[in-house]
Design goal:
Helices cover 17% and strands 23% of the residues. The protein is α/β, with parallel strands linked by helices. Helix 4 packs parallel to helix 5. It is elongated and about 80 Å long. The protein starts with 21 loop residues before the first strand and ends with a strand.
Length: 516
């Protein structure tokens, strides 16, 4: 089945200065009635300092790309329920307009789930305050909140569709859902929300892997395939060609490299292999989006994690992309540019590569004072049984659980179910041990301890899982803490809980002491 979409013209300008229609037609995309191969550079506005946005867009244009592909991150725009932020670093409309200024089209990927090695795959942590929530399903609360976000996003970006004089040519519905489940009804709900938000006059598409794209594929959406460097192009599109022989082909994510985890080596992928794959697609008139063209940085607490086994992502999202984390043109950049100048669009002018921004030298920092955490705790809250961080209305940072111990005999095991993600265990202020979720650690053998001693468990949250069902990733201690002997299990209760969020408002005026 061939699905035809048209961008209805309202007489406004596109990035080329002409009124045009973008269509998904018979074996090809067309723009202004002429065949158009999408050469998209994926990069994410939240991973690039806003002051550098324009430079990075210029870098993509000089590479030979004609489109910018981007996710929107719901959890960055709505960090508290009902409080939406589209300003500053979150001003996605400004980012799109800067792309238009430089003659670049935009492919918008609004989720609600995006993966992207981003905290919880872009979903807001506060959804987990609802105990029985089922994310990425027909769960009524999840759909209600998703609809609100889509409406707000539409208020920002719907007017920037190419049909209205902007530069958005396509909008994605959900993201690689075949790797999560089978639920066409849910996908249809997200499609309808995208349309209701105003994205109703440009093509809507789904992306997935070649092995899963039909599991949730809707007849009225364009289907695209994701794969990476080194893949066999013919094989990747074989099933799609059979299912839809007249559809335009597009690799919606051609992975230029890979992401890094804490504690592992930097991932790289061969430049010549990447360029060869892109050449193969261009020779077949297959559109592509290079994921990533510029990765940037997952600042603050925004890096995600894989599970199982739990493995948190690095702050660096360099991705071994052609444009480095710092915004520099790499050897991979120049190899790709040499290819893309040979496949320039009719009338496309590929400018010179912009100069890299200068670096600054940071002088040595000398510390003269310290403020001990346990001497600067905020007001505690009490709970009989352990609860995760979200139950205390905290999204990120650390959390301290404190209780009083009964008499403990040597060899008793402290069992924590579960530690999310890195814990330090203290008794009467003395550090007894550390537990690391990445290593599956959840228990500690205790020495003999007198009755009435103070137990402190300080838990630091790392990134929430961004893939598969593990995105239901609550932080802190998620279930209970027990004392185990050969014959008994005793659950500890009566907790004082100290919330230590990343903003550290509680430590605005800490008690310092001089370093010796």
């Amino acid at each position: 089945m061939v699905v035809l979409f048209a961008a209805i013209l309202l007489g406004c300008s596109s990035p080329t200065g002409k009124s045009q229609i973008f269509e998904v037609g018979n074996k090809e995309f067309t723009l202004g009635g002429k065949s158009f191969i999408v050469k998209a550079a994926e990069m994410h506005y939240t991973r690039i300092p806003a002051e550098y946005w324009e430079h990075r867009i210029e870098m993509c244009k000089a590479l030979g790309m004609n489109t910018i592909c981007l996710y929107t991150f719901w959890n960055s725009h709505e960090q508290e329920p009902g409080k939406f932020d589209f300003t500053g670093q979150n001003d996605v409309a400004k980012f799109c307009r800067l792309a238009q200024k430089h003659g670049m089209y935009v492919i918008l990927r609004p989720g609600p789930y995006v993966c992207a090695e981003w905290e919880m795959g872009g979903l807001p942590w506060w959804l987990l305050k609802k105990k029985d929530i089922q994310l990425r399903t027909g769960d009524s609360y999840f759909l209600e909140r998703t609809r609100l976000f889509m409406q707000k996003l539409g208020e920002q970006l719907a007017e920037l569709q190419v049909s209205k004089g902007g530069n958005i040519i396509m909008v994605q519905v959900e993201n690689e859902y075949g790797g999560y489940g089978i639920d066409k009804e849910y996908i249809a709900s997200i499609r309808d929300m995208v349309k209701e938000a105003g994205f109703n006059s440009v093509p809507l598409f789904q992306c997935d892997w070649n092995s899963t794209f039909q599991l949730n594929g809707l007849d009225d959406l364009l289907w695209t395939i994701n794969f990476g460097t080194g893949a066999n192009i013919e094989e990747q599109f074989k099933a799609l060609r059979k299912a839809r022989p007249d559809t335009p082909l597009m690799c919606s994510e051609f992975w230029s490299g890979w992401f890094d985890h804490w504690g592992r080596k930097h991932e790289t992928r061969d430049a010549k292999t990447m360029v060869s794959g892109i050449k193969d697609m261009l020779d077949r008139k297959i559109s592509f989006s290079l994921y990533m063209t510029h990765g940037g940085t997952s600042f603050g607490h925004w890096g995600g994690a894989n599970n199982p086994a739990y493995s948190a992502m690095c702050s660096s999202y360099d991705y071994d992309a052609p444009i480095s984390e710092a915004g520099w043109a790499t050897p991979k950049y120049y190899e790709l540019r040499d290819l893309l100048v040979q496949y320039a669009d009719s009338g496309q002018v590929i400018p010179d590569v912009p100069k890299a921004y200068p670096v600054v030298e940071i002088p040595t920092v000398q510390f003269a004072e310290r403020a001990d955490l346990f001497a600067n705790l905020p007001q505690s809250v009490t709970t009989d049984r352990i609860k995760p961080m979200e139950d205390f209305n905290q999204g990120w940072g650390s959390i301290l659980y404190r209780t009083t111990l009964p008499e403990i005999h040597e060899g008793t095991t402290l069992f924590i179910d579960e530690v999310h993600d890195w814990a330090q265990v203290f008794v009467d202020g003395k550090l007894l041990g550390r537990l690391d979720r990445r290593r599956g650690e959840n228990s500690l053998s205790l020495p003999a301890i007198g009755k009435g001693s103070q137990l402190d468990i300080l838990v630091e949250a790392m990134g929430r899982v961004n893939f598969d069902k593990s995105i239901h990733d609550r932080k802190g201690i998620t279930e209970k803490v027990e004392l185990l002997t050969d014959s008994t299990r005793f659950e500890l209760t009566g907790w004082n809980v100290y919330n230590l969020p990343v903003g550290a408002v509680f430590a605005a005026n800490p008690n310092f002491r001089k370093l010796s």
